[in-house]
Specification:
This protein is an alpha/beta fold. It contains 5 helices and 5 strands, in the order βαβαβαβαβα. It has a 5-stranded parallel sheet with strand order 3-2-1-4-5, with helices on both faces. The longest helix is centred in the middle third of the chain and has 30 residues. It is globular, with a radius of gyration of 16 Å. It starts with 9 loop residues before the first strand and ends with a helix.
Length: about 160
């Protein structure tokens, strides 16, 4: 059996279209670089409300998958520049929270989940609220919540 301490730390970032996700991505990539770790990206394609229209739903799912792949390809390049290696990519379909928890259970090499808190009046975001609140004692990995308003210079100083 291999020594688990010899494996690189894997930092997981959940990808979405929020500004704060870019903060989590940059922080995690720099932490991975400084600790000899790797970065993993999870993009979850959420189901639409058009399930009664199968043909339309199928087309929309294909379009969302293509968009997810394009975004992850773009982010992979940015991550490689920041941490020196390409990230591990995960694309899943379902509810974001459910798919995240399932991935964490299925991938024991994931060491740290990095999220950024939203900066708006609506609070830190539903994923942060759920994982840091209700699920905090049940998580298999530490959750690092980065303030979504950090500048690149602040992130570099912390990472």
């Amino acid at each position: 059996m291999s020594d688990p301490s010899a494996r690189p730390r894997i930092f997981l970032v959940v990808v979405d279209d929020s500004e704060e996700m870019r903060v989590a991505l940059r922080y995690a990539a720099l932490r991975a670089r400084h600790t000899g770790g790797r970065l993993a990206l999870l993009y979850v394609i959420e189901p639409s409300d058009l399930q009664q229209w199968i043909a339309i739903e199928t087309l929309m799912r294909e379009e969302r998958r293509e968009a997810a792949e394009a975004l992850l390809l773009k982010l992979s390049s940015e991550v490689a520049d920041l941490c020196g290696s390409l990230p591990i990519l995960h694309i899943r379909e379902g509810r974001r929270r459910d798919e995240l928890l399932a991935l964490l259970e299925e991938e024991p090499d994931i060491s740290v989940l990095v999220l950024a808190a939203g900066t708006g009046a609506e609070g830190p975001g539903p994923l942060v609220t759920h994982l840091v609140g209700k699920m905090s004692g049940k998580m298999r990995v530490p959750v690092t919540v980065v303030p979504g308003s950090l500048s690149d210079a602040q992130i570099a100083a912390l990472a």
